[in-house]
Design brief:
- It comes from Salvelinus namaycush (Lake trout).
- One of its GO terms (biological process) is homophilic cell adhesion via plasma membrane adhesion molecules.
- Helix content is about 10%, strand content about 40%.
């Protein structure tokens, strides 16, 4: 029961102390920032409600990822995310962190995101009396000659208390004795105890005196430390060395080289001989750190630099020098030396990247915070002032924040396709003389966004396909590229829906969505479809996706798949044509004319006529190109009255297609009228026949005149363009007008190489006029021959490819003059 009561009292005592500290801490937080806490707080102790002080709600510290960073290298504090409180994370020893520096400030950086912000707070660590004064040695031996007069002073070792302020060293005391008393002197702000001889010593009465020196601090409760002093009474040598000055103070730059002299201490002894010879030493209580930095010459008292002086490590060195004579016993004198280390600019600035966001999207808006950067310099004064700059030529800038803190933000557009990453060089320069600088590279990677549509390798594509091809065969391939990367650069191809002769284009063409290969869905028939176009779309896989379109012109090339069709004699007249001819006909008499057409084009449509069989092959001949059947000689009485002719009609294709027609010619006496078609009535009035004959004569005369004029024009133009490398001529194949859909024009291209031909279709396709840009000389009017001058010696096929094939039934013009649509 008694133990429980004591435990409750102990807990109550701790709670009261904690409440007192909490009230003190709370008042400090309310009064100002930084926070103030005592050292040695237990882990988990609350420093303050940082969320409340920063104006953040409990949910915000989760969402904005609140975290803290410390320059001390250790995380002494953490944030309770459930309460928003700043709590102690590790044991805090003020003496370890700050030594004797007052105040002891521990800077913290509080970082929150979305948006990225930096808050700087400072926590002052207050000292508690947790250290007792201590001496370097627990025992001090003094050799004092018995002849020393009362009033002589002997310096004692000073105690050291790591605590500061009221808890630091306050006083000394000496144990009760008859011969000695204690004197305290203040030197350089430090209390130094001295043992003063009160009455003369008598070695014969007492050779050794034992004393206890006590050092007490000012804490509550006070702490103390002791050192035992043993005084050995000596005889004879009764004069100690005396220094010229009891205290030496020197200022030394921290970059003074090793071996350089700092000061020369000198002492003198009024004794003679060995009793007057002096040697110099560091006092017994001199720290090892000073003895590692400095050296004292035992003969001259010259103090030189032995190690590397560093202002940032220690800026003040205080120690004692002892001068001893060589008498017996040896007498000694003392002086104090204080060396102030002056700072020089020997530390380059340090660049600290507190936070870095990388990669960032290329569409980031100007002003976006990329990184939080700070700088510090271990030097002081002007040597410690740091300025941050950055390399030019990048779309970033440094925006100053609190002292020596900067934000790296965007200040221009980013384009991953131009630069996929930026190496931003941060330069820190101090204000020392000469200034020192440090460089640090911050790599910012750029994240791709889908900002570039696919681009086709050509502005348009032209495909030539033979008719009657195999369904499913590849026609061509289109290719597009996307300068984005990843999914944004993956491309799918598709054909946009459109109509070709009122049928969806997808019925004709299929495209591979992965590689852009275009396939035919079925075979084509040139006689039904000569040209059409499709729109191919390339779409990337970005979000949102981007696309581009390209036009593919498909030209159907003619194959010789149609045999010539006989127009006259008409099929309705029967398989055999019956004609009449007078026996009085002379040589060259036009008996009849065979007319045929070929649905194919170009060479495949060129028709020739040949007499295969005849009753009398010496009597009749057939014109190879016109199909006119004429007599080769005059008809004689011996010739049979019925002549049978078998005429073959062939095209010029490969393989050759042909047709035949049989003509029966009846030779009659006294027949003078032209043979007419059996469908015409034989009883027509002679007046009407005479009019028809008149019109035919007029028509033939007109055609002859036009042909002559055209020939003259052709000759003139050919003479004018004789120096050019190529020319093209247009020849009308038939004389029955361009409006006849079954007639063709033949375009002959004369170049330095082989002769080439281009077929120009008839008037059935004169639906729209477009410009043919490759010809320069205008064509005023179509006649039998017309000269057209190309712009270069380029193959005529390249000229034809320039044509806009958006409408398959379009007509073309040479320099605004209408010409029927042409294909190779």
């Amino acid at each position: 029961m008694e133990q429980r009561t004591m435990r409750i009292r102990g807990n109550l005592r701790w709670q009261v102390l904690w409440i007192y500290q909490f009230v003190l801490l709370w008042n400090t937080i309310e009064a100002q920032i930084p926070y103030t806490i005592p050292e040695e707080l237990k882990e988990g102790s609350v420093v303050g409600n940082i969320a409340k002080d920063l104006g953040l709600g409990i949910s915000e510290i989760y969402d904005r990822k609140l975290r803290i960073a410390s320059d001390a290298g250790k995380q002494y504090f953490s944030v309770d995310l459930g309460k928003g409180e700043l709590v102690v994370n590790k044991r805090i020893d003020r003496e370890y962190l700050c030594g004797e520096n007052v105040p002891c400030l521990l800077p913290l950086e509080v970082i929150v995101e979305n948006p990225l912000q930096l808050h700087r707070i400072e926590i002052e660590i207050q000292d508690i009396n947790d250290n007792s004064p201590g001496f370097l040695t627990n025992e001090r031996i003094l050799n004092i000659a018995e002849v020393i007069n009362p009033g002589a002073k002997f310096p004692l070792e000073s105690a050291h208390d790591p605590d500061v302020g009221a808890n630091s060293l306050r006083s000394y005391s000496i144990s009760d004795n008859y011969h000695f008393l204690l004197n305290i002197k203040t030197q350089g702000g430090q209390k130094i105890p001295e043992l003063v001889l009160k009455t003369s010593l008598d070695r014969e009465k007492q050779a050794v005196h034992k004393l206890v020196l006590t050092a007490v601090d000012g804490g509550t409760p006070a702490r103390s430390g002791t050192s035992e002093i043993t005084v050995i009474v000596l005889d004879v040598n009764d004069n100690e060395p005396q220094f010229e000055r009891p205290f030496y103070e020197i200022a030394v730059a921290e970059n003074r080289p090793v071996g350089n002299q700092i000061v020369n201490v000198k002492a003198s002894d009024s004794d003679e001989g060995q009793n007057g010879e002096i040697e110099y030493f560091f006092a017994d209580q001199t720290p090892e750190s000073i003895m590692a930095l400095l050296n004292v010459d035992s003969n001259t008292g010259e103090i030189t630099i032995k190690g590397h002086l560093d202002y940032e490590q220690t800026n003040l060195h205080t120690f004692d020098i002892v001068a001893k004579d060589k008498g017996s016993p040896r007498m000694e004198g003392h002086c104090s030396v204080k060396i102030n280390i002056a700072d020089v600019n020997d530390n380059a600035p340090q660049i600290i990247i507190t936070s870095l966001t990388s990669p960032i999207p290329e569409n980031s808006a100007p002003g976006m915070v990329i990184a939080l950067i700070s700088a510090k310099d271990l030097d002081v004064g002007e040597n410690g002032k740091v300025t941050l700059n950055m390399s030019r030529g990048s779309p970033f800038t440094l925006k100053p924040s609190v002292s020596n803190h900067y934000a790296l933000v965007t200040n221009g557009p980013l384009d991953r396709e131009t630069f996929s990453k930026y190496d931003v060089v941060i330069i820190a320069v101090d204000s020392g003389s000469p200034p020192l600088s440090t460089k640090k590279t911050v790599t910012v990677k750029i994240l791709d966004v889908n900002d570039n549509p696919p681009v086709f390798s050509q502005t348009s594509y032209t495909v030539y396909v033979k008719e009657n091809g195999t369904p499913g065969s590849i026609l061509s391939s289109v290719s597009a590229s996307d300068i984005d990367m990843g999914e944004n650069a993956k491309i799918s191809y598709s054909i946009l829906d459109s109509k070709v002769q009122d049928v969806s284009v997808s019925s004709y063409i299929y495209i591979n969505s992965d590689n852009g290969s275009i396939y035919s869905m079925h075979s084509f028939d040139y006689e039904k479809l000569k040209v059409f176009q499709i729109q191919v779309q390339a779409k990337d896989h970005g979000s949102p996706s981007l696309s581009s379109n390209v036009t593919v012109h498909v030209f159907i090339l003619d194959q010789n798949d149609n045999a010539p069709a006989v127009i006259y004699p008409s099929a309705v007249m029967g398989s055999v044509s019956h004609q009449k001819m007078p026996r009085s006909a002379k040589a060259g008499h036009l008996t009849t004319k065979i007319s045929a057409v070929d649905a194919d084009s170009g060479h495949n449509a060129w028709i020739s006529y040949r007499l295969v069989e005849a009753t009398d092959s010496s009597l009749f001949s057939v014109n190879l190109y016109t199909g006119e059947v004429r007599t080769k000689r005059a008809v004689s009485e011996q010739d049979d009255s019925s002549q049978r002719l078998l005429i073959e009609i062939q095209d010029n294709g490969e393989p050759v297609q042909s047709a035949t027609v049989t003509v029966n010619i009846l030779l009659e006496d006294g027949l003078h009228e032209p043979i007419s078609d059996f469908r015409q009535k034989t009883a027509e009035p002679s007046k009407r026949n005479s009019k028809i004959t008149f019109y035919l004569i007029i028509s033939l005369a007109s055609v002859s005149v036009l042909s002559l004029l055209t020939f003259l024009i052709l000759v003139v133009k050919c003479v004018r363009n004789s120096r050019s490398s190529s020319s093209c001529c247009i020849r009308r194949a038939d004389s029955d007008g361009y409006k006849n859909p079954n007639r063709n024009l033949q375009l002959q291209l004369n170049t330095d190489g082989p002769i080439k031909y281009v077929e120009v279709l008839g008037g059935d396709m004169l639906s729209q006029s477009q410009s043919f840009r490759s010809c320069l000389s205008p064509v005023s009017e179509f006649s039998d021959f017309t000269l057209v001058k190309p712009s270069s010696t380029t193959d005529f096929k390249d000229m034809i490819n320039v044509l806009d094939a958006s409408l398959p039934d379009s007509a073309w013009t040479f320099e605004s003059q209408q010409v029927s649509a042409a294909t190779l």
